[in-house]
Specification:
The structure holds 2 protein chains of 2 kinds.
Chain A: H1 2-6, H2 8-86, H3 92-113, H4 124-147, H5 153-182, H6 187-200, H7 208-220, H8 233-243, H9 273-284, H10 286-289, E1 292-300, E2 306-313, E3 322-327, E4 333-338, H11 349-361, E5 368-376, E6 379-388, E7 391-393, E8 398-403, E9 409-413, H12 415-420, H13 433-439, E10 445-455, E11 461-471, E12 474-481, E13 487-496, E14 499-502
Parallel strand pairs in A: 7-10
Antiparallel strand pairs in A: 1-2, 2-3, 3-4, 4-9, 5-6, 6-7, 6-8, 8-9, 10-11, 11-12, 12-13, 13-14
Helix pairs in contact in A: 2-3, 2-5, 3-4, 4-8, 5-8
Chain B: H1 2-26, H2 53-67, H3 72-86, H4 95-99, H5 106-109, H6 122-132, E1 142-144, E2 159-163, E3 166-169
Classes of the chains: A alpha+beta, B mainly alpha.
């Protein structure tokens, strides 16, 4: 009892302290609650903002996909319709109109299909079918114009076969369209699902945390057990397998499967790696090779099997590296590329052309003619073509890349030369220069001519008279077939400060 | 006073955080330096189809986004693959069609192709060289980085060549 009376002020102080402490901690709690409240509200607001924005972007993407799909469906429906009309036509005009329209619709179908999120499905045959029908129809239309006839029996049967496939594709697309409509499927969701599936099927080469994250994502989205492709995408896969059962259309055009290019300019005899190094050494030249190391970097298994060679400075292996490919057959340089910064030009494009010609002559390429010199970033790319007699062989072109600061040749590409060049024994033109000249439009002024060999899309080569022509300050190259007088091609020539360009 | 200071610090941190967030979400990734290129690309007579400026620029961007840091030969190779695809029936038949095919290129899907690219970037040179005809891949239409490839299917393709970190295949 006495104790209480002994130090009353102490008790009061203690109580005061306790109250203050309580108040402090209550203040603290209140503050924390306030902060939490504000933060929640803020993040809620931000989250909502993000959600709204996300929805808008999602919608824009979805609308884009829906447009592409519906356009694709329309294009294929039109292709089918035009083909069915072709099957009943007996005139050149309806045949050509129909074929051109099929080609136009097919080109658009290809473009629209390319905008759908289907790349991961690798629908190579479906794409190939659409593109090939387009090219086949265009190609056939051109021939029908020349021949001025309707479709032959053989052509009719090809159209009939293509029509069958197109009708199948049309039906499948219509089914998918219905599914998209009634099942409320969105492309954006389908895309996400297919992406997850692709990752799940991938080799375990990703980091463990990535795999864990993918697993979490998959579990959250309830995709854990799904192994089949999502709807629509599965339908596209079905189309792909069905179309693979047909053999591709046989025709003489760009996408024809019958075109097999075997390199003709390689000669014979296999070389060893050591020989490849020697060939590279003599191509580059000994003076340059001092202080440099030359290595075989690997082998290429492309159309022209090759050894890869690299040349690097011993003291600086990352700078000014030269890469070359040497063909295993015949030991030819396929291409050479040297990567180095190029300073301000000290030579003109004409000088660069002379450098290129000299470079080739020293490596045994004679009787070459420069066609164009293109300039960019202080580099001139010179295109040269060999000649057989007085005929320029355009298919066999060679490119030489010249650094315009010190005339060093920093690139060579002989792929086309090695692929196409051979002794052709070209026949004399059946159409004389004057005859051909008369077939050029009277609206243009002809300023020059020469005989050239031109390659078409299907690599078929035609001997042509090439006429330089002008009209209204525009320059052209007009090609007249030297055997039958057909106007084969018209190209526009534009001269800019970066060189001569041909379109 | 102690709490006031705490509040001040907290609000400061919060605003910095907000700024960062808003900056991140509102940053215009499509904004980048303009690259000026000559109007077109020359091609020897007899060639078909000629890339225009928009194609050269996009090709350079795609190379930049996909193979920055690769050896020069590898950059030209990536450009060549894109061009080979545009001529192949199983792909869209234009350079932009190939580049923007959804899901075809990682750098396009994640927006890396829009990162600023200097005028003298090696990717611009590589694009021009690929257009001029250099093709270190010898006609390939696929490539992948074996360390990061997500598609299983791709491993079924026969590898034609290895350049830098990439495998190239037909």
């Amino acid at each position: 009892m006495t104790h209480e009376f002994k130090e009353p002020h102490e008790t009061i102080e203690r109580q005061r302290d306790q109250v203050a402490d309580l108040r402090k901690s209550r203040n603290g709690l209140g503050f924390l609650a306030g902060v939490l409240g504000v933060t929640t509200a803020l993040f809620g607001y931000l989250g909502y903002n993000q959600y709204v924005q996300n929805q808008a972007f999602r919608m824009a993407t979805e609308n884009h996909y829906q447009r592409a799909f519906n356009e694709l469906s329309t294009n294929v429906n039109n292709m089918e319709l035009e083909m069915s009309r072709l099957m009943a036509s007996n005139s050149t005009n309806q045949t050509v109109t129909g074929l051109t329209e099929v080609s136009r619709q097919a080109n658009q179908a290809s473009a629209n299909m390319g905008q759908l999120p289907l790349a991961t499905l690798l629908l190579s045959r479906t794409n190939q079918f659409v593109n090939t029908v387009g090219d086949f129809s265009q190609n056939l239309a051109e021939r029908k114009v020349d021949a001025n006839t309707s479709l032959t029996v053989e052509e009719q049967s090809k159209i009939r076969d293509l029509h069958k496939q197109t009708a199948f594709l049309r039906d499948e697309l219509n089914k998918m369209g219905e599914q998209l409509n009634t099942r409320q499927l969105t492309w954006v969701d389908l895309q996400r699902q297919s992406r997850m599936q692709e990752q799940k099927g991938s080799k375990q080469q990703t980091a463990w945390y990535d795999r864990l994250w993918n697993k979490v994502l998959a579990t959250v989205a309830g995709q854990e057990t799904e192994t089949q492709a999502p709807p629509i995408l599965a339908n596209f896969q079905f189309v792909e397998t069905e179309l693979q059962k047909y053999s591709p259309v046989e025709y003489d055009g760009r996408y024809s499967e019958q075109i097999k290019i075997t390199p003709r300019g390689l000669g014979s005899g296999q070389i060893t790696q050591e020989q490849a190094v020697q060939i590279a050494q003599s191509w580059i030249g000994q003076p340059y090779l001092d202080g440099h190391q030359i290595n075989v970097t690997g082998e290429g298994k492309a159309a022209i099997p090759s050894y890869g060679i690299s040349v690097v400075a011993k003291d600086n292996p990352n700078q000014n590296k030269i890469n070359m490919d040497i063909s295993k057959t015949g030991g030819h340089v396929i291409y050479m590329l040297k990567d180095r910064p190029v300073g301000t030009p000290t030579i003109t494009r004409d000088d660069a052309a002379a450098v290129a010609r000299d470079y080739l002559a020293r490596r045994g390429f004679n009787n070459f003619e420069v066609t164009t010199v293109e300039e960019y970033q202080n580099i001139a790319v010179v295109t040269v073509v060999p000649k057989e007699g007085n005929v320029s062989l355009y298919p066999d072109k060679v490119k030489v890349r010249v650094a315009m600061d010190d005339k060093e040749v920093i690139g060579y590409d002989g792929t086309a030369y090695l692929t196409f060049h051979h002794n052709r024994n070209l026949s004399q033109p059946a159409i004389s220069r004057e005859d051909a000249r008369r077939r050029v439009s009277s609206q243009v002024a002809v300023t020059g001519d020469k005989l050239v060999l031109l390659a078409k899309d299907n690599y078929q080569e035609i001997l042509c008279w090439e006429f330089n022509a002008t009209r209204d300050n525009m320059n052209y190259l007009v090609y007249i077939n030297a055997q039958n007088g057909r106007e084969e091609k018209i190209l526009r020539v534009e001269t800019t400060n970066a060189g001569k360009f041909i379109f | 006073m102690r709490y006031r200071k705490g509040l001040k610090n907290f609000l400061f941190a919060l605003s910095i955080g907000l700024l960062c967030w808003q900056g991140w979400t509102h940053y215009d990734w499509t904004k980048s330096e303009k690259t000026i290129l000559p109007p077109a690309v020359a091609e020897a007579q007899g060639g078909t189809g000629h890339p225009r400026q928009g194609e050269v620029q996009m090709l350079a961007r795609a190379i930049h986004g996909e193979s920055r840091g690769e050896p020069y030969e590898g950059q030209v190779a990536v450009g060549a693959v894109i061009l080979n695809r545009s001529k192949h029936p199983s792909f869209p038949n234009s350079v932009n069609g190939v580049i923007f095919q959804p899901g075809a290129f990682t750098a396009v899907d994640d927006g890396q192709i829009w990162t600023p690219m200097p005028d003298d970037a090696s990717a611009v040179k590589a694009a021009r060289d690929a257009l001029a005809g250099w093709d270190p891949t010898g006609g390939c239409i696929y490539y992948w980085n074996p360390a990061t490839a997500t598609s299983q299917w791709i491993w079924s393709r026969p590898v034609v060549k290895t350049i830098g970190k990439h495998y190239f295949a037909k």
